[in-house]
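#onboarding

Welcome to the new folks! Below is a worked example of what a typical request in this channel looks like: someone posts a single protein sequence, and someone else replies with the predicted structure as tokens. Don't worry about understanding the tokens yet, we'll cover that in week two.

Example request:
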Amino acid sequence: MNTNPPKGSNKPSAYGSAKDLPTYKEMSQQIQGLKLLTRVIARDQRQKLLEIEEQMERLTRVVDDFYDRLGSRNWIFHDTLNVDKIEQLIAETADAESAEIRLIDLYRDREEAKRWHMLLRSHEGLRKRLHLIERAREHYDADQFDSCVLQLIAIMDGFVNDVEPEARKGLHARNPDDMAAWDSAVGHHMGLTHALATFTKTFKKRVDEEVFDVYRHGIMHGTVVNFDNVVVATKAWNMLFAVADWATATHKAAEPNISAPSIRDTWKSISRHALYKKYQQEFVPSTIESSDSGFSSNEIMLLASEFLDAWEHGRWGIVARFKPPILCESKSDGYTAREAKTTFEPYDLKDWSIKSITYDQASSVEIMAQATVNNQVTEMRFRIVFWSVDGNVAIPDREEGDWSLAVWAPNTYLKVAAE
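Example response:
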């Protein structure tokens, strides 16, 4: 689908509604054409088409409702947010204050955070700052909110400069209009550009009262001195995810324009989306323990064993096959093997055993094991995800794809066992 800005166009401007996004407009037009087509042929597909149209309407409604409720408080709707949970949040709260409390609870949920942080790794500039992001999360979980905010501000400033190095401006030096995002929910007029006006607000005198927004200028220059609270820290996380979406949109807008897809291509894409949505809705979590029958022949257990065995014996070419595809580049097998060695060799793995396999999310499995790492008995938890050949999350046993690690950082798998 051609959602890129026309050649020679100016920078994107903020959108009045999620329905103004180019992708929504084009998909809506395609659906109307397909609805006419299904009156003549493929009539059995018409209901599926109507369901997809309803899902699109729901998504845009949730985004607009989110901004109506929370945009004035400088909260930004980013792609990582769970639409179902945001819809529920809006429905079950009556005002901005109570909605804000519920939203902060989502960010405080560590399991939810694991999924969110995994998606940050799609950007090279954020992968280079992964150690800073992890430290910020540690401070956030420990209620050390002021240090968390300082870390996240530094990450955002540097990352934005990496995305557009020719501009040589960090986030702090950007005009809000410079951060308008093409074809992204963060590009809403109450989204990133709105929040950035507060981010860059100048403070010439000291402010002693407690603040509840990310006043970057005042915080970094020492004029805003009372920002150590969960609201400011969570808004800093919210802005980081929004900036990541802005970077995605910026790269997307810079890609060469491509021709519009055929009706067949669009129908294939819509059908696949509906199929995956149905798979998510019908997914039932389950766990298989090492003592259960069939555990030794379980597909995930065998894959996890292959990975751990290769790690233990330094077979780095095999370890490299488990690298998340979103991090893979066009490199030789030798290069990726050396990279795997650099990443995993510092963690000397021995005497491992897999304890359980938990299918807790659609297309995603958590493996729990025990091992000795660098001479310490360690509990291990790591996740693998089923990816399609085109880099999207896929449906196991129904689509072509491979299981790969969710996170390429062995230190995040380890927890020293209690004596």
